[in-house]
Amino acid sequence: MNHTNGVVVEANSLVRRFGPHRAVDGVDLSLHPGESLAVFGPNGAGKTTLLRLLAGLLKPTSGFARIDGVTVPGGALVRRRIGIISHHTLLYDALTARENVEFAARLYRVDDPRSSALSALERMGISERADATVRSLSRGMKQRVSVARAMVHGPSVVLADEPFTGLDASGSRALAGILSELRESGATLIVVTHNLEEGLSVATRVAVMHRGRIVHAAQTGDVDAAAFPAEYRDLVGAV
Amino acid sequence: MTELVHDAWVIAVKDLTIEFRTRSAFLSAVVFALLAIVIFYFAWDPTAVAAGDLAPGVLWVVFTFSGLLGLHRSFGIEHEERAIDGLVASPILRESIFLGKAIANLVFVIAVQAIAIPAIALFYNLDFGAASLPIAGVAILAAIGVVTVGTLFSAMASNTRLAELLLPMLSLPFFVPIVLPAAQATAKLLSGRPAIEAMSWLKLLVAFDLVFVVACTLAYPFTLEE
Q: Is the ipTM here above 0.90?
């Protein structure tokens, strides 16, 4: 690994405009290995745009984002380390669950893509539907496959946008377990959500976004919903 | 280079698997091609225009418009669940996304041609004879050009709300330098002229293919920027 002063994920004065609208407006953050940041905020706060900037899916208007000291999107080495979970599934409806995950494994040059895909699906508790087309799966099952897709190459930086969307209780537990395992193994996580409880279940740090800015950040530790400042609980809808 | 080809192939296989499983675009393109051939056939006055004079025009009109049906689908499947984000974020060269799509589209267009060209021979009572292989060569060269340009514009149009309208409007003017030499070469071959007489048109076709393959592959990454 090529950490810069131990910082794995870094954003510096990150700005992204869409026309006159500043979706992300001067965000600074830095995350070290094993840290997990939950980003809260109401709809339109800029959470998804921030994540897309960090993933290299959007170019910043100004400022920069870096993974491992390399400005994103960076080269293959950096992108191989990132896993993306989105509220869109990133799956192909006409392919089976296994084919979707195996396709991702091939793109990420995973050894033995087929068995890696199957074990990723098993981890998400959906291996019995591995040969079902994604079209035939429920929303929650699709989300499990989507998570398996994101995890098949063993990413060390996970960028998750509303990852719990559509998951039932057991799916949420499986995902929370996987994210916690990843964090304990030294991976860096950023989880964007507007749900306070879900975010706190996997976070070691929290940030609240509003109108493109981080308006509140708690550095580390035992953050819980009760200790969360009331004005920011209003923003994330957890009154 | 090896990685580029490997990744392009992985994407092409994925696209062809999806098309083989749904067959939506292929069946639409084949039905469209056959219907167009039938309509042209009944609109044709054999006493005014010889079959050999009309067939090249019909062939390339049918080829151009039926190809568009598959090209539109090409990037459409990437936007249904934002699968394109998964491709862009993966550690592959963005050019390999384009090449993979273009390979799958090429297979699609050649498969449609494999049905449309014999159908035209049947309807217009054409005997390709010794011209069969050269005509197949022209068809493949034209398919490469059309698919390359069409894949690029499909990528651009798929990001918009007017994708179905924009793709033909953007693509058709760029198809002209491909379809023109292809139609001329086909006419020469069908009229029984020596193949050497079609060479100048074939050279033009190859030149445009090379230009379009290089230019479109290099231009594709810019279509991904929002």
A: no
